[in-house]
């Protein structure tokens, strides 16, 4: 028994009386009356309302609903006197209360009763409404039939022929409809149509209409901030800024083309003009499939109110796309990370340099993040950015691993102390617990928190996929890296993570294809050459392998490119690799990357030496590449190798 049992029983009786009359409504009611879960009841109550409002929009307002919010249609039905006032009141009541049903914590169970009462009132009225229209339609048909003269004898003779023509025409029409439907949903055809199977959106870079070029960072910051707000909406697939950034130049591709490349149904475009202490932000939401403008608005505001404006824009987008927001999501959308415009701009510049993924880039990003913190010491997101920089510098050997690890953890925890809703900070903690501490359960919990806050954070999906791969859940890992690519399809860094998975599973051709995509997205991609060298070596294309190796040698002051060229001409690629290994051994003894050396030795089959250096790397907790299926394939039964895995808390 529940506090709304009587209301459910009333709807059950109504459902039984409806059978065969309103199939679409019946379908939703069937799910509702079968459950006692308040969350599900609220959801299907809203779905029933959506079905009814959509039909009324077509019948009374003579237009399809598309993505128009329910509230707007209800108001229009009332204004045009299409629906009685008391029914309008019930519709508004159901619509308002049911939006809180997406999560059990976001409404009081007592609110379920008025929702069910409103639904009962609406459905009873709607049933009478449909009956009235059915009677009117029947009368119209009868009148039409009575005014039609009897067919003459010639028509009677031709009737079978006409029926045959109609039959053939009907079959042809069905074929056209089926083929069109298959094409639209990409079951046949060239696969280039956008599949409108989910609510998906990309925010393109806002045009900077201000005279000062430096205001471009301000415009980019507004895009980043807007993305952070709408990314918390679980119902939406939100494309990362890294991918949208590729379409900064307008006019090269149409909106449908951009949407197709990004895999979205909706595009947000905008512009920013900053003058003194005020700014004008213009935003428009576009149905990218039909290239139709859904909504556009100008916001003339004081700079101090710019973040409130961002919240308004995000809420309007959510409304236009008819998404259901929990109270928690509304809070996150309306929350401002900082009120300091200068700190906001400095943070954006920090992320710009962080995305370069180079030593100089990280150093520059730290400088800007620290300046942002100086401007606003309570700016949690700036601390998270700082933590991100130290974490990656530690993992990529730009700084001491332990020093970088401790600094990154301290900053990430500080960020969460200031703002508990930071997926970025939880993602940094997940990396620390994975790559350095090997605390797999702690890493799992950190990533879970990141996804709870922002299910659209592509970076979290990327690193979580690596976590899953480390603990042997390779199929799940593939799902998450594919999701990261879906959310950020034009990111060379995420494509790089994908190619590593393919490589370590021995899928070299697919890995090479992913690598080519990296270079296509960013020429001279700095992280790609070591895998290009390894991939071509594994595929037996030694000339190409050496060309990639030359780029590695040229970028490392420990190596002499001229010496490498002489060795290669005299003795070939394997001799160059042996020469590099000897140099690396000397460097490794002085504290350089043991793990990299172990991987190269494993790749060329020097298993015992590889095991020795791997042991040293694990002893120092300095082994950022933990997926070794290919490089150490000959060691899988080796007791020493198995012992090292156990030391890391991993199984074979």
Structural features, described:
With 652 residues, the chain is an alpha/beta fold. It is 64% helix and 6% strand. Among the domains are: 5-138; 159-191; 199-336, TolB, N-terminal domain (Rossmann fold), CATH 3.40.50. The protein is built from 29 helices and six strands. Strands 1, 2, 3, 4, 5 and 6 form a six-stranded mixed beta sheet that branches. It is elongated. The two termini are 51 Å apart.
Which class of secondary structure composition applies to the elements? Answer: alpha/beta
Given this structure, which CATH class of the domain at 199-336 is correct?
Alpha Beta
* Low-confidence runs: 148-157, 174-197
What is the average per-residue confidence, as pLDDT, rounded to a whole number?
Answer: 82
Largest sheet: 6 strands, mixed
How is the CATH topology of the domain at 199-336 named? Rossmann fold
Can you tag this structure with a few keywords?
652 residues, alpha/beta, Rossmann fold, 6 strands, 64% helix, elongated
Task: Briefly summarize what is shown.
This protein has 652 residues and is of the alpha/beta class. Among the domains are: 5-138; 159-191; 199-336, Rossmann fold (3-Layer(aba) Sandwich). It is built from 29 helices and six strands.
Helix and strand layout, with pairings?
Blueprint: H1 5-18, H2 23-33, H3 38-60, H4 70-79, H5 85-98, H6 112-146, H7 153-184, E1 199-203, E2 207-208, H8 215-230, E3 236-238, H9 241-244, H10 255-262, E4 266-275, E5 278-287, E6 292-302, H11 306-320, H12 327-334, H13 341-354, H14 359-375, H15 380-395, H16 401-418, H17 423-436, H18 440-453, H19 458-470, H20 474-487, H21 492-504, H22 508-521, H23 529-538, H24 542-554, H25 561-571, H26 573-589, H27 594-603, H28 607-619, H29 639-647
Parallel strand pairs: 1-3, 1-4, 2-4
Antiparallel strand pairs: 4-5, 5-6
């Amino acid at each position: 028994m529940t506090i709304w049992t009587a209301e459910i029983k009333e709807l059950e009786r109504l459902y039984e009386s409806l059978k065969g009359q309103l199939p679409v409504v019946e379908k939703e009611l069937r799910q509702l009356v079968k459950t006692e879960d308040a969350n599900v009841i609220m959801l299907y109550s809203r779905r029933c309302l959506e079905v009814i409002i959509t039909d009324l929009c077509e019948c009374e307002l003579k237009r399809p609903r598309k993505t128009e919010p329910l509230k707007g249609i209800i108001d229009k039905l009332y204004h045009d006197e299409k629906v009685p006032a008391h029914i309008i009141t019930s519709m508004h009541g159901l619509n308002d209360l049911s939006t809180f049903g997406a999560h059990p914590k976001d409404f009081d169970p007592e609110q379920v009763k008025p929702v069910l009462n409103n639904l009962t009132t609406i459905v009873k009225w709607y049933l009478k409404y449909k009956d009235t229209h059915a009677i009117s339609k029947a009368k119209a048909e009868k009148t039409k039939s009575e005014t039609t003269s009897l067919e003459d004898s010639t028509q009677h003779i031709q009737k079978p022929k006409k029926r045959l023509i109609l039959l053939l025409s009907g079959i042809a029409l069905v074929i056209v409809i089926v083929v069109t439907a298959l094409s639209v949903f990409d079951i046949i055809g060239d696969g280039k149509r956008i599949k409108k199977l989910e609510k998906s959106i990309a925010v393109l870079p806002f045009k900077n209409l201000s005279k000062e070029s430096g205001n471009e960072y301000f415009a980019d910051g507004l895009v980043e901030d807007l993305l952070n707000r709408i990314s918390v909406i679980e119902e939406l697939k939100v494309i990362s800024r890294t991918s949208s950034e590729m379409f900064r130049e307008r006019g090269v591709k149409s909106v449908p083309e951009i949407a197709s490349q990004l895999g979205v149904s909706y595009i947000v475009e905008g512009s920013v003009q900053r003058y003194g202490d005020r700014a004008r932000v213009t935003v428009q939401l576009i149905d990218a499939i039909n290239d139709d403008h859904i909504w556009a608005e100008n916001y003339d505001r004081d700079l101090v109110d710019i973040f409130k404006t961002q919240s308004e824009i995000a809420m309007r987008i959510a409304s236009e796309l008819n998404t259901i927001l929990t109270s928690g999501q509304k809070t996150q959308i309306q929350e401002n990370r900082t009120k300091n415009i200068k700190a906001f701009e400095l943070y954006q510049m920090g992320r710009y340099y962080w995305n370069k993924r180079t030593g100089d880039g990280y150093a520059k990003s730290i400088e800007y993040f620290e300046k942002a913190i100086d401007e606003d010491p309570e700016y949690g997101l700036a601390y998270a950015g700082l933590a991100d920089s130290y974490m990656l510098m530690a993992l990529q050997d730009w700084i001491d691993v332990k020093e970088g690890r401790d600094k990154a953890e301290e900053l990430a925890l500080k960020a969460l102390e200031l703002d508990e809703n930071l997926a970025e900070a939880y993602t940094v903690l997940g990396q620390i617990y994975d790559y350095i501490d090997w605390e797999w359960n702690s890493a799992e919990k950190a990533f879970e928190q990141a996804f709870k806050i922002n299910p659209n954070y592509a970076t979290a999906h990327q690193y979580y996929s690596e976590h899953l791969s480390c603990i042997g859940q390779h199929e799940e890992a593939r799902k998450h890296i594919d999701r990261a690519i879906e959310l950020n399809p034009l990111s060379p860094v995420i494509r790089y993570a994908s190619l590593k998975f393919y490589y370590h599973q021995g899928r070299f051709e697919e890995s090479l294809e992913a690598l080519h995509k990296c270079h296509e997205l960013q020429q001279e991609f700095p992280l790609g050459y070591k895998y290009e060298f390894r991939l071509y070596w594994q595929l037996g294309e030694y000339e190409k392998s050496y060309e990639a190796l030359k780029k590695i040698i040229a970028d490392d002051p420990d190596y002499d490119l001229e010496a490498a060229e002489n060795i290669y001409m005299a003795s070939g690629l394997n001799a160059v690799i042996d020469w590099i290994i000897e140099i690396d051994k000397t460097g490794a003894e002085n504290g350089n990357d043991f793990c990299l050396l172990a991987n190269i030795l494993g790749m060329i089959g020097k298993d015992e030496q590889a095991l020795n250096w791997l042991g040293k790397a694990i002893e120092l907790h300095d082994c950022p590449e933990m997926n070794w299926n290919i490089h150490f394939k000959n060691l899988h039964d080796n007791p020493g190798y198995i012992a090292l895995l156990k030391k890391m808390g991993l199984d074979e």
